[in-house]
Amino acid sequence: MKKLTVVSGKGGVGKTTLTAALAILFTQDKFPLTLTDCDVDAPNLALSLKNQEKKRSDVFSANIAILDKEHCINCQECLKHCKFGAIKWDHDDDKPIINEFECEGCGVCTIVCPADCIKLTPIKTGDLIISESKYGFPIISGELKIGRGNSGKIVAEAKMAALKIAEQNNNKVILSDGPPGIGCPVIASLSDSDFVVVITEPMPAAIHDLKRVLTLAWNFTKKIGLVINKHDLYPPLISEIEAFAVNNNINILGKIPIDSKIPEALIHNTSIIEYASNAPAAQAIIKIYENLVKTLRLKKE
Fold first, then answer.
1. What is the sign of the dihedral through the CA atoms of 272, 276, 281 and 286?
2. Which of 274, 287, 297, 276 is nearest to 228 (CA)?
């Protein structure tokens, strides 16, 4: 089994579009796979794959402090020691008020409370969703609840669920669509990856973020492939990207041209591979897929 993760370092580069297309191509080529959407802040991978939700479960990946007012002795020790400003004082009630959205669940208040009237309680931070695409492969996604944190833990839950399903189905590939940036959910997405596909575009901001995400990815694997999206957007920067790849022993899997068929496909909630398989961008993605299969040395059953 190969575990692949697609990342970009920034949003809007084409990561999810590429991931959806690769998933379809793996399926068409008879490589059974499980797909994971690790962008738990804004999971949208399933939009172009016409998924049907099969199961949704709660994720409890954080704790918050809960006050038992009846046993509170009004000492204000919790107020004095909360470093996150999550505890305010209700002068009308003469009791502390704990803001559940500011509470980090550190537990200091439970330690300093002489009346032992504050407890840490698990709270729901998101959902784990198991769906099936119209192409037949499962899609595992996490969805962070508004105002909650610990997105990395939800990503970890999604990846564990995907691994379990992939093992049950004897899948050859687990393909993960990573979130943008280089933060906690990206770290969770990259963990235990066998191969990382990094997608960028010839723009200064994208190149800057490309270097940042590569610095992160190298901590997990040296097996990395680069995809240059919208390569004809600003040709002068292409040589800079290519030189950087050569100097760092990064294999360039391919380049995708600007193609109006991609936004058209997105408007129709489908992948460019299905919407216009002969379009220049689709043909480029097919070549990228072929190079990826060769690089991974995947063999059909």
1. positive
2. 287
| Enclosing H/E stretch for 21 | helix 15-28
At 171, the pLDDT band (50, 70, 90 cuts) reads very high
For 73, phi then psi, to 5°, come to -105, 15
Reading the block at residue 77, the tokens are: 């020790």
- If residue 123 lies in a helix (H) or strand (E), which one and from where to where? strand 118-123
Beta bridge partners, 138, equal 132
Confirm if 78 and 109 have CB atoms less than 8 A apart: yes
All structural domains of the chain, each given as residue ranges with its CATH number in brackets, are: 2-60+126-296 (3.40.50.300), 62-123 (3.30.70.20)
Half-sphere exposure of 258 (CA within 13 A, CB side): 7
Tokens of 240: 């800079």
Give the max Cα distance, the chain.
73
Residue 249: pLDDT over 70: yes
Give CA angle at 86 (80, 88), nearest 5°. 65
Query: Which residues are CB-neighbours of 243 under 8 A, at least 6 positions away?
Result: none
| Backbone phi, psi, residue 168, to 5° | -65, -35
Could you tell me how far CA 44 lies from the centroid of its own chain? 10
Q: Are 175 and 6 in contact (CB under 8 A)?
A: yes
Contact present, 45 and 177 (Cβ < 8 Å): yes
How far, in Å, are 31, 117, 187 from residue 288 at the CA level? 16, 59, 25
DSSP-based three-state secondary structure for 102: coil
> pLDDT (tens digit, 9 = 90+) per residue, 255-281?
999 999 999 999 999 999 999 999 999
Which tokens belong to 140? 């595992």
